[in-house]
Write a structure and sequence with these properties.
Layout lengths: L1 H15 L2 H57 L2 H12 L4 E8 L4 E6 L3 H5 L1 E10 L2 E15 L1 H49 L16 H74 L5 H32 L6 E5 H18 L3 E4 L5 E5 H17 L5 E9 L3 E8 L6 H4 L28 H11 L5 E5 L3 E11 L19 E5 L3 H13 L3 E5 L2 H7 L9 E5 L8 H15 L5 E6 L4 H10 L3 E3 L4 H18 L1
Parallel strand pairs: 6-8, 12-13, 12-14, 14-15, 15-16
Antiparallel strand pairs: 1-2, 1-4, 3-4, 5-7, 7-11, 8-9, 9-11, 10-11
Helix pairs in contact: 2-3, 2-5, 6-7, 6-12, 7-11, 8-9, 9-11, 13-14
Protein name: histidine kinase
Main location: membrane
Catalytic activity: ATP + protein L-histidine = ADP + protein N-phospho-L-histidine
Length: 633
């Protein structure tokens, strides 16, 4: 494992070096190895030579000392033996001389060296024999130790000089190798620089041809590839520029078409809602005091067709506003039951007309969301559920979930959605083609296939996601989750109020005579005292006979010749302020849905209804604004 780790380290280190460093390393390593081997070999040879010379010197001195010590040993002349030992010890390189008898007794001993130096020497022991009897018994022995200190010092000096020579040679070799490496790698470095410059200039990158070797062939190949790449890059830039201009033109055309479509849909919604609103008023007025069953049935069909048309226009308009990004999210905290009540008011009559039950369970939870978008989501889901429920009914309920969340469910007992269609029902203009299973007579209730698409996109805007669970012939449930918040203790909640508007004095301002006629007929059938006007001047004339301000002023937002309903309300405020009358309630009704044009109304905090307004919604709004102005006074 250690060898593998060291090998990996060497490989990583080698990969991190540059080409010049590698070439310098390759040039330096043989010189280093050769020099080290030479120094090692010469040093060992010199050391061996010094030891041989020391050995020979010691043997010669020992032989000489043994020869001159033979007679004094035979005669036991200790003084002579001491003199011989001293004289021998004074010879060069002799560190210790010792003469012993045959039984090992030291007869003479001489050493001048320090104890540390005596340890570093070469010792030779020579037997002393009688020269007259060479083969006789030994007379004693002579021990001579030769010091190697001078030899070692000489060896160290030689090694030091060798190392200096080695360092100088390595330095010279390194300089030469580095220069050679630079010379060899220079063409490659220029190629690397040229490669980095590819695609950054207005001309092809060219490198100088330095030689005729493989490097020269590489340089020629690079120049050819650079020229071809430059031509290709230039052609590609030209094609990209053309494609970019074409794409920009198409994008501009698409944006223009999208804006034109949005403007058309908004204008169509505003203009077509006017007659729809008149139809709604007249159909509702026709039903007042009508006892003929056949006529009531026809009136109900007319009202259902009007509601279906309004639903189709609303789907198209919502799609347009979502595509153009003109829908702004305004998050607020409110009781969920308020939105449930609005949904109940919008659809309970439709459910009763088709013998269906619409059950909306009350709840005390508060949520944080965009109230308008949430209402639109629930209205679309409930409308869709009623449309495809032949019998039974629809249930809307809320349930608390862990993590301060509330899940809102819309259940129905309708025809259901098959599994193969569930992944696409949220696509635009997609409808499940199962009309044979749809409720009979649902023609005017069918949509364009935009309701669920709008629901999903609105849910994304408020940070939620609509989930679908459905079984054919068993019904469907659409669910989404909202964040729960703590209830506000001092919030003004809507309370049930009586819907008796008889005796209320109402001024209606609208530039469409048909709408004026219809709303005048409807309000009078409710017992209201009504006067009408088409602009601000007529409004002042219409209320001249009223000494005090009307109870309520209903005005269209856009009147003739660019006049605004806000301007009419301002004229009436100024008129009745001079008279000293109490403030009057006010209500604006419009077919306009563009947020930029509705911003002044939202800023002024004036109640606003969107055409066509159902009679029930109009009646509840009349009582709500009337009650609010009376509480304020």
């Amino acid at each position: 494992m250690t060898d593998m780790g060291s090998g990996n380290f060497a490989v990583r280190l080698w990969r991190r070096t540059s080409l010049m460093q590698r070439l310098g390393f390759v040039a330096l390593v043989p010189t280093l190895v050769t020099a080290v081997l030479l120094v090692t070999t010469l040093t060992r040879h010199q050391l061996a030579t010094l030891r041989v010379m020391a050995q020979d010197t010691a043997n010669a001195i020992a032989i000489q000392a043994a020869a001159v010590s033979a007679e004094p040993l035979r005669q036991s002349q200790r003084r002579e033996l001491a003199r011989i030992a001293q004289a021998t010890g004074e010879l060069p390189h002799v560190a210790w001389v010792q003469i012993r008898s045959v039984d090992g007794e030291i007869l003479a001993d001489h050493h001048d060296a320090q104890p540390d130096d005596t340890a570093r020497g070469l010792t030779v022991i020579r037997e002393v024999t009688d020269p007259r009897r060479p083969l006789g018994p030994s007379l004693g022995s002579v021990m001579v130790r030769v010091s190697l200190a001078d030899a070692i010092a000489a060896q160290r000096s030689s090694l030091h000089n060798a190392l200096i020579t080695l360092a100088i040679s390595l330095l010279v070799a390194g300089i030469i190798g580095w220069q050679v490496a630079r010379w060899l790698s220079a063409p490659l470095r220029r190629l690397v620089t040229a490669v980095q410059q590819l695609g950054h200039g207005d001309a092809p990158v060219v490198v100088e041809i330095t030689d005729r070797t493989e490097i020269g062939q590489l340089q020629r190949g690079f120049n050819a590839a650079s020229a071809a790449l430059f031509d290709m890059h230039r052609d590609m830039e030209r094609e990209i520029d053309q494609a970019t201009r074409a794409l920009a033109d198409k994008n501009a055309a698409l944006e223009a078409a999208s804006i034109a479509k949005a403007r058309f849909l908004a204008a169509a919604s505003h203009d077509l809602r006017q007659p729809l609103y008149a139809l709604t008023l007249f159909s509702s007025a026709l039903a007042v005091d009508e006892d003929d069953v056949v006529r009531l049935d026809r009136i109900a069909h007319i009202q259902e067709c009007v509601q279906a048309l309004d639903h189709l226009f609303s789907e198209l308009l919502d799609l347009s506003r979502l595509e153009t990004g003109t829908m702004d999210v305004e998050m607020s905290e409110f009781p969920l039951d308020q939105v449930f009540d609005e949904v109940s008011r919008n659809f309970r009559m439709i459910a009763e007309q088709h013998d269906l039950r619409l059950v909306i369970r009350t709840t005390d939870v508060w949520v944080r969301s965009d109230r308008t978008m949430l209402g639109r989501i629930l209205n679309n889901l409930v409308s869709n559920a009623l449309r495809y429920t032949p019998e039974g009914g629809v249930l809307v309920a809320a349930r608390r979930r862990p993590g301060k969340q509330v899940r809102v469910d819309v259940w129905d007992t309708g025809i259901g959605i098959a599994a193969e269609h569930q992944a696409r029902v949220f696509d635009e203009f997609y409808r499940v083609e199962n009309h044979c299973e749809a409720p009979p007579g649902d023609g005017p209730r069918r949509g364009l296939g935009l309701g669920l698409s709008t629901v999903q996109r609105l849910a994304e805007l408020i940070g939620s996601d609509v989930q679908l669970h459905s079984r054919p012939h068993r019904g469907s449930v659409f669910s989404f989750v909202l964040p729960e918040v703590a209830p506000q203790p001092h919030a003004d909640l809507l309370v049930d109020m009586p819907l008796d508007v008889s005796g209320m004095r109402v001024l209606v301002v609208d530039d469409e005579p048909a709408i004026l006629s219809g709303i005048r007929y409807l309000l009078r059938s409710w017992g209201c005292e009504v006067v009408t006007a088409e602009d601000g001047a007529q409004a002042l004339e219409a209320v001249e006979n009223w000494r005090t301000a009307p109870d309520l002023v209903i005005s269209d937002l856009h009147l003739r010749e660019g006049e605004s309903g806000l301007e009419v309300l301002a004229l009436l405020d100024a008129y009745y302020k001079r008279e000293g009358s109490r403030p009057f309630a006010r209500l604006l009704i419009t077919g306009e849905t563009r947020r930029d044009r509705l911003q002044p109304i939202l800023t002024a905090n004036i109640p606003l209804l969107y055409k066509p307004v159902s009679p029930a919604q109009l009646r509840e709004s009349l009582m709500a604004v009337w009650a609010s102005i009376r509480e304020g006074t």
